[in-house]
Backbone:
């Protein structure tokens, strides 16, 4: 049995698994995330959310391949990769792999040290850039990520606390495709973190239970604790906060996000979309994207060259 | 009783409800799964002295 207090319900195994499939089906349908014949690239980390997402998409009949990004975070990354490969092998699914160290000459701990910034920033930047690149290069229609209701509510809280209007305009279960950007979707947005862990336990999916050693103490975890404190006293608060924003708040910030996208040019190194007037790029020849700048600072030794 | 993140084992005298156990450990029920054997249990379940219980955090907070 598992209790889901925001639905005021307790489910047996079979009904809970059906509930998860239904929530994903509804999210995909209501936000028009994935067409029936489209090819999906699932960003898989070895954690509960991304493996559950991969499993659910395949069960719902989608053509979904996986992409695992090796971050170079010691044993944690080694173990995470093992869970992903085992899942892909057991289910006969196609898995692509990129290794930051081998393919790009740096890893997340090295990037954090080189930039003297929180490792989660370098990690998130690398994931966004490389998942998008892989989807475009591989001819995929859409990138699916395992962001769940708790993730999105915590991100929303952080964005509201700082009134990050551009981020608020981009925070949506679907980011449509645009020049240089694949469509990005979050089919788990109607399911909480606890439900995703329960889904994996009940389906027998082995996943990386341990927390990333580099994430300890980050703001995102703090926001989740705050929201869970609220949820315990008032079940349904996280869903009301997030879905109220999506339905009634998001559109008010969309213009800010559109303006940011309209001001993008091409990175002179890799061709990825990047702000044209970005002082941090520091080049007269044109802008360099944040990923290429990170790579240049963090990798030893690498000299980036402009595209001919 | 096995607790994860960080992994450690503790002994707790039973019988005790899941709700009381989590309160004693100062854990928010929203942030964990309680697993007995290979079964998930709800917060009103009673755990006896011999139950092999895993308390598994469900919160992940790194970059996604």
Residues:
């Amino acid at each position: 049995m598992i209790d889901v207090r925001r639905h005021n319900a307790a489910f047996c195994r079979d009904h809970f698994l059906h509930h998860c499939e239904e929530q994903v089906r509804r999210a995909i349908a209501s936000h028009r995330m994935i067409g029936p014949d489209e090819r999906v690239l699932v960003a898989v980390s070895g954690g509960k959310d991304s493996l559950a997402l991969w499993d659910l998409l395949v069960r719902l009949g989608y053509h979904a391949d996986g992409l695992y990004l090796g971050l170079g975070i010691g044993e944690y990354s080694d173990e995470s990769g093992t869970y992903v490969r085992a899942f892909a092998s057991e289910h006969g699914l196609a898995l692509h792999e990129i290794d930051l160290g081998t393919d790009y000459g740096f890893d997340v701990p090295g990037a954090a040290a080189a930039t003297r910034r929180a490792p989660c920033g370098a990690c998130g930047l690398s994931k966004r850039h490389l998942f998008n690149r892989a989807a475009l290069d591989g001819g995929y229609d859409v990138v699916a990520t395992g962001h769940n209701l708790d993730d999105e509510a915590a991100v929303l809280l952080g964005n509201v606390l700082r009134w990050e209007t551009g981020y608020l305009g981009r925070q949506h279960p679907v980011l449509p495709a645009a020049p240089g950007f694949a469509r990005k979707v979050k089919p788990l947005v109607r399911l909480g973190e606890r439900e995703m862990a329960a889904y994996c336990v009940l389906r027998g999916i082995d996943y990386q239970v341990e927390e990333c050693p580099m994430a300890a103490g980050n703001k995102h975890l703090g926001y989740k604790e705050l929201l869970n404190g609220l949820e315990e006293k008032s079940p349904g608060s996280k869903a009301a906060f997030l879905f109220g924003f999506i339905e009634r708040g998001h559109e008010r910030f969309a213009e800010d996000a559109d303006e940011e996208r309209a001001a993008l040019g091409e990175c002179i190194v890799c061709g990825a979309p990047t702000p044209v007037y970005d002082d941090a790029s520091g080049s007269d020849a044109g802008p360099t994207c944040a990923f290429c700048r990170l790579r240049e600072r963090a990798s030893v030794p690498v000299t980036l060259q402009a595209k001919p | 009783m096995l607790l994860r993140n960080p992994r450690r084992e503790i002994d707790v005298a039973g019988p005790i409800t899941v709700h009381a156990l989590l309160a004693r450990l100062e854990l928010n029920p929203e942030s964990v799964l309680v697993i007995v054997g290979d079964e998930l249990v709800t917060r009103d379940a009673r755990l006896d002295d011999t139950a092999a219980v895993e308390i598994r955090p469900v919160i992940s907070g790194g970059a996604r």
In short: Chain B has one helix and seven strands. Chain B touches chain A at residues 4-5, 7, 28-33, 35, 38, 40-43, 56-64 (CB under 8 Å).
